[in-house]
Amino acid sequence: MRMIFDPRQSAHAPALEMHNGGWVAHAEVPGRAANIGAALGATEAPADHGLASITAIHDPAYVDFLRSAHRRWLEAGREGDAVGYIWPVARRRDVQLDRIDAMLGRYSMDAGTPITADTWDAAYWAAQSALTALDAVLAGDRVAFALCRPPGHHAGADYLGGYCYLNNAAIAAQAARDAGATRVAILDVDYHHGNGTQDIFWNRGDVLFASIHGDPRIDYPFYWGHADERGEGAGEGATLNLPLPHGTAIAPYLAALDQVLAAIRAFAPDMLIVSFGADTYEADPISHFAIRTQDYAEIAGAIAKLALPSVIVMEGGYAVDALGANVAGFLSGL
Ligand code: OKP
Ligand code: ZN
């Protein structure tokens, strides 16, 4: 299996995130990719597909913001990482401002996703890794792995959040459509709901978004991922959410996965994108499922039975020491 990663993805290293009322060390660390890379052996660098595949998903004004935010932060006399402290209340009129603090609010959903001097490059190359894994599958490989870091599934068309800046899975799904796939399914098995991916494809019937995740009534990202969210317009029924309770172990997890896989089969896609997070792991420091290292191959085995050309895109997983083994276990089951 080809495994794609660019060393420039490692330069992004935000210092702090707002967590439960205080600033704590950021959980989405470069060591995550290092641990995965060590477990997988050699990875290959992505090809540069340019900006067009990114702006096919993301608002160009948001992309400009991402590229310029840290410079604007420094120009405003600040130091360290750029992070917002004010957000427009939902449905507030869209005032266009270029003050960095206003822009951070306009283009973010939380205070856990700082922008460093290296964030744009890292996010750009993570997206290129996803696009290069897609190339492998379009060229006939049954499966390829993009070691995306930073992750992507919380990022919307015009907002960052949840450690995510560019939505790697959505960018790959759109590129697959543009390369001729008629229907694309995105299966999100990160612990957290992929709100950005859901938002991006909410009104579209050509991309199915199906997710199993911690119940958003009690878990981040709270405002998305409830069982009654099913898409709208042409996208009605092309969003599927299965929230599960804290403590979910492999048996009920596989039962939920069976439901989701049946929906994917019924959708009859030409291509599968998997947003894979290993934060369903029992010892994950910020999540609450009870999946064991040996379970990941079984989860992947069930997914592999779809027998679809598949791009695996890395999302979360914060138990850094076990991350490589969990990812390697998952990929072995494919
Ligand atoms: C990113 B991914 C706030 C903690 C919430 C955000 C979690 C982002 C997870 N007290 N942190 O889906 O793994
Ligand atoms: Zn997650």
UniProtKB/TrEMBL annotation:
Pfam families: Hist_deacetyl (PF00850). GO terms for molecular function: histone deacetylase activity; hydrolase activity; metal ion binding. Signal peptide: none annotated. SUPFAM superfamilies: Arginase/deacetylase. CDD domains: HDAC_classII_APAH. Its cofactor is Zn(2+). InterPro entries: HDACs, His_deacetylse_dom, His_deacetylse_dom_sf, Ureohydrolase_dom_sf. Residues 46-332 form the Histone deacetylase domain. Keywords: Hydrolase, Metal-binding, Zinc. Gene3D superfamilies: Histone deacetylase domain (3.40.800.20). One of its GO terms (biological process) is epigenetic regulation of gene expression. It comes from the Bacteria. Belongs to the histone deacetylase family. This is Histone deacetylase family protein. It comes from Sphingomonas gilva.
